[in-house]
Automatic annotation (TrEMBL):
Domain L,D-TPase catalytic: residue ranges: 266-401
Pfam family, one: Big_10
GO molecular function: acyltransferase activity; peptidoglycan L,D-transpeptidase activity
Organism of derivation: Streptomyces noursei
Annotated metabolic or biological route of this protein: Cell wall biogenesis; peptidoglycan biosynthesis; Glycan biosynthesis
GO BP annotations, alphabetical order: cell wall organization; peptidoglycan-protein cross-linking; regulation of cell shape
Keyword Cell wall biogenesis/degradation recorded: yes
Protein name: Lipoprotein
Keywords: Acyltransferase, Cell membrane, Cell shape, Cell wall biogenesis/degradation, Lipoprotein, Membrane, Palmitate, Peptidoglycan synthesis, Signal, Transferase
GO cellular component terms, semicolon-separated: extracellular region
Active site: H351, C369
């Protein structure tokens, strides 16, 4: 072998050896410490030490303020009352919540959601419940005691109408009602898990009366005491339905408290045989009014009926409640019935009557309503119709006796008083 060939062989061997050692060093397992491998090992150790130092320094400089946003980022079924931001180890300095509102033919725009920051800066929440099937973004900034800042973001979508339910309730918050007014809740979707839903609703009175719920089907839940509410009592309805599952995949979205006042006690008894109505206020008879009730062909329901709506004037068309002629038009169509108050869902009213002459206190001529003497236009306050309208409130009771018709069904209007207490309690899911 010539010297030239020998030198080439040594160079090739050295190159191979160096390559192997270099690979070993990248794997951090160089035991021999030869050549470039040793240098590579020492360099890796220095880099590891430097990275660790940087991480430690960054950790020491990090803010101690910890921000938590609910719902979590990426949620797709958030409740309408779930949104909140909290801070620990510091306080919030700024929270921005926005949603994107799409306008037809225009570019989507951001809409800011108003919120309230607590006095100590540790919590924030929207001022109102959110909308269903809407995407929101929250960006929250905070600071710790050393002035170091922190930031957190969350983007989430609220539950869709398909996967949520609400309860529409009466009476209204802040209203004053009569002693017969039940709490009535109508759900926008069928409720299969009645016990869970009813358990999330409470009704309590300052009179300490026992209040029990009763289900009319799977979409309506009414609450009442055994006897009428005590006059001048305060009633509180609490709906804690947020997150409660009414049926598989359908959850509630309401957290609401409602207060209403029970005013005077007024029960007016209509006797269809004597054609008179006796109005009793707080145990004392204050007026007797001549009336005309349902005819023999269309008698008025018997039973206890609760005034649920009041109209100074309203149109009454017989076709809307099944009273039609052969041509399909209503047997009656009066565009300006004065002083009308609803007693049932099926069209029973107690109202003023200006078209009937000589009938009051003498005969029954209506299609089931109770008529009182009145004038066209509802402009004379001296009439019996106007007097009764002005002296009645939502929730007052009108009791009909001696009619040849059946007793009104408890779910036809707000008329659950026509059910015995044992029957009422039997319809409770709690």
């Amino acid at each position: 072998m010539t010297d030239r060939k020998r030198r080439k062989g040594l160079i090739a061997s050295a190159a191979l050896l160096g390559g192997v050692l270099t690979v070993a060093a990248c794997g951090a397992s160089n035991a021999t410490g030869h050549g470039g491998g040793a240098n590579a090992g020492r360099q890796d150790g220095s880099q590891h030490e430097s990275t660790q130092q940087v991480d430690e320094a960054a950790a020491q400089d990090a803010s101690q303020a910890k921000i938590t946003i609910t719902p979590r980022d990426g949620s797709t079924d958030a409740g309408l009352n779930d949104a909140k931001v909290t801070a620990s180890g510091g306080k919030l300095t700024d929270v921005t919540m926005t949603t994107v509102v799409a306008h037809q033919g225009q570019q989507s725009q951001q809409k800011t959601v108003a919120g309230t920051l607590s006095a100590d800066g540790t919590s924030w929440k929207p001022k109102q419940a959110l909308s269903r099937a809407t995407t929101y973004k929250i960006t929250a900034h905070g600071v710790d005691a050393q002035g170091r800042t922190a930031v957190e973001n969350s983007t989430f979508t609220t539950v869709s109408p398909t996967n949520s339910f609400i309860g529409n309730f009466t009476p209204e918050d802040g209203s004053t009602v009569g002693v017969g007014m039940p709490v009535s809740i109508n759900f926008d979707k069928p409720v299969k898990n009645r016990q869970a839903v009813q358990s999330a609703i409470s009704v309590a009175s300052s009179s300490n009366q026992q209040v029990v719920g009763h289900w009319f089907g799977n979409k309506r839940l009414d609450f009442r005491p055994k006897d009428y509410w005590k006059p001048n009592s305060q009633v509180t309805l609490k709906l804690a339905l947020d997150g409660v599952e009414a049926s598989p995949g359908v959850k509630g979205i309401q957290n609401k408290t409602v207060h209403f006042t029970v005013g005077h006690s007024q029960v007016s008894t209509v006797d269809t045989k004597t054609h008179l109505m006796t109005v009793v206020r707080d145990g004392r008879t204050i007026k007797t009014i001549p009336i005309s009730s349902g005819s023999d062909d269309h008698p008025t329901y018997n039973g206890q009926m609760v005034i649920s709506e009041k109209f100074k004037q309203t149109r009454m068309d017989g076709s809307t409640v099944g009273f039609t002629n052969n041509d399909g038009k209503g047997e009656y169509d009066i565009p300006d019935v004065p002083h009308a108050m609803r007693l049932s869902n099926s069209g029973t009213f107690i109202h003023g009557n200006y078209w009937g002459k000589g009938i009051f206190g003498k005969t029954n001529t209506s299609h089931g309503c109770i008529g009182l003497p009145d004038v066209k236009g509802a402009g004379d306050p001296s009439t019996d119709g106007a007097w009764f309208f002005n002296h009645s409130q939502i929730g007052d009771v009108v009791k009909v006796v001696n009619s040849p018709d059946q007793t009104i069904k408890p779910d036809n209007g707000l008329n659950g008083w026509n059910m015995s207490w044992s029957q009422w309690v039997a319809g409770s899911a709690s």
